[in-house]
Design brief:
alpha+beta; about 100 residues; about 35% helix; Arc Repressor Mutant, subunit A; two-stranded antiparallel ribbon
Length: about 100
């Protein structure tokens, strides 16, 4: 019996998840099944181009561009709120920053 392809493994995993999954986490799934993480990245980009999965890009801690993936029909990811601490009358108050 043939072993499942990396594309099938990734699609099956994403279809079982109810939220967005990072590319790093999917790379670990690929490694556990005997595939290279680089192959995982290529397959994910190809599936996103073919509109088989959703992709979202965001900035990481060091301002690098990261990606996360989800099954079709998933709601868009909620961006993290940026917060600033301000002192008002001797009391620290958190203020949400807008873009």
């Amino acid at each position: 019996m043939k072993s499942p392809t990396l594309k099938k493994i990734l699609l099956d995993y994403l279809n079982t998840q109810e939220n967005w999954v990072s590319k790093g986490q999917l790379g670990l799934i690929a490694e556990q099944n005997g595939y290279l993480p680089e192959s995982c990245g290529r397959h994910l980009r190809k599936m996103a181009e073919e509109k088989e999965i959703l992709v979202s890009y965001y900035k990481g801690k060091r301002n690098q561009t990261l990606s996360r993936y989800a099954r079709l029909g998933e709601l868009p990811p909620i961006p993290k709120q940026k917060v600033e601490l301000v002192e008002v009358d001797g009391v620290m108050i958190a203020r949400l920053l807008t873009n």
